């Protein structure tokens, strides 16, 4: 019986494939170097058989592919695709922005809370100060807690202190803040020796009045008495004899409205008290020829009322120098302090 497909004949040889030169050379080297490898003898036999036919046959082993490398490449591509996923990146940026926003809100909240507490403290302190001041004013003005209970007089020498205290007794019981300056002036007007005054309120209950008395600088004889006047022409007192420090005036000085009186009065007021006490009389016909007579009989041409302190210094120096050398002198001119004259 004949077999199908021609089994009774010689089987058909498959058409040989031409291998690449490098792979063919490698296959040849492998076959020659490893003769004991599986299929080596078969390859040799086949080659022997093919030599007679003159055909070239390649190695029956098919090329292999490393799947691990494929998996690694695929995993790398997946990681890259996931890493640059725009949706996930955007979501991450949104979460980070929200986190930063919450942190900034917390910082701002803490900052404004601190500033608010500081403002409240400032307002509380300011309000407390205003309230305390208002309370102090109310207590001092509308209650007898800070009313006048003691009246003190300072600077009185000629004026009787008891008389001034009696004149100011009307203010006892009045709150210190309500003591009126005009009423104090009205109470002190009857005292001509008081030139000026000042009022101090000393809590809780003391009213202090500082007075400056008028100083008589010259005397004018009138009706058998010697009336004493200060530099402003105010009558200070009257006596039977001119007191020390208030020399007897003559000439145009007796006219209280004249220039001679004002010049002589200012010169006597501004000179040292020790020198004024040595002057026994003063005369002048105008404002620039004031002449003094000292207790030792020396006549002094004073001149005008300017440079009084320097004129007094020059007069004292000249008097001391002349007395030291024993030179008698009856007249000294200090009207010009740069060139004083004596004789």
UniProtKB/TrEMBL annotation:
Gene3D superfamilies: membrane protein fhac. The chain crosses the membrane at residues 122-142. GO terms for cellular component: plasma membrane. GO terms for biological process: cell division. Residues 146-214 form the POTRA domain. Its main location: membrane. The keyword Cell cycle applies. It is found in: Membrane. Residues 9-21 have a biased composition (Basic and acidic residues). Keywords: Cell cycle, Cell division, Cell membrane, Membrane, Transmembrane, Transmembrane helix. The keyword Translocase does not apply. InterPro entries: Cell_div_FtsQ/DivIB_C, FtsQ_DivIB, POTRA, POTRA_FtsQ_type. Residues 1-64 are annotated as: Disordered. It comes from the Bacteria. Signal peptide: none annotated. Pfam families: FtsQ_DivIB_C, POTRA_1. This is FtsQ-type POTRA domain-containing protein. It comes from Leucobacter ruminantium.
């Amino acid at each position: 019986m004949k077999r199908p497909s021609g089994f009774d004949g010689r089987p058909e040889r498959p058409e040989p494939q031409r291998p690449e030169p490098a792979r063919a050379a490698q296959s040849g080297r492998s076959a020659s170097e490893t003769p004991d490898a599986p299929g080596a003898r078969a390859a040799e036999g086949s080659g022997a058989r093919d030599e007679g036919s003159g055909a070239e046959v390649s190695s029956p082993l098919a090329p292999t592919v490393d799947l691990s490398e494929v998996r690694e490449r695929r995993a790398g591509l997946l990681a890259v695709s996931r890493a640059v996923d725009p949706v996930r990146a955007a979501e991450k940026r949104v979460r980070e922005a929200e986190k930063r926003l919450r942190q900034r809100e917390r910082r701002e909240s803490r900052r404004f809370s601190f500033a608010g507490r500081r403002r409240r403290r400032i307002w509380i302190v300011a309000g407390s100060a205003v309230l305390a001041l208002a309370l102090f004013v109310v207590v001092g003005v509308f209650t007898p807690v800070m009313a006048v209970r003691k009246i003190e007089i300072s600077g009185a020498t000629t004026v009787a202190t008891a008389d001034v205290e009696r004149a100011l007794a009307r203010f006892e019981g009045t709150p210190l803040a309500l003591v009126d300056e005009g009423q104090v002036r009205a109470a002190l007007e009857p005292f001509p020796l008081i030139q000026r005054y000042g009022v101090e309120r000393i809590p809780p209950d003391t009213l202090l009045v500082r007075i400056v008395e008028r100083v008589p600088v010259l005397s004018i004889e009138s009706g058998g008495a010697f009336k004493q006047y200060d530099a402003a022409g105010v009558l200070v007192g009257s006596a039977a004899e001119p007191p020390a420090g208030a020399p007897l005036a003559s000439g145009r000085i007796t006219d209280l409205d004249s220039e001679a009186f004002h010049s002589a009065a200012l010169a006597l007021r501004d000179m040292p008290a020790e020198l004024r006490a040595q002057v026994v009389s003063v005369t002048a016909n105008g404002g620039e020829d004031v002449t003094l007579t000292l207790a030792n009989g020396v006549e002094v041409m004073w001149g005008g009322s300017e440079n009084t302190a320097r004129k007094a210094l020059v007069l004292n120096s000249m008097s001391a120098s002349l007395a030291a050398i024993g030179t008698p002198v009856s007249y000294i001119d200090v009207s010009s302090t740069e060139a004083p004259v004596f004789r």
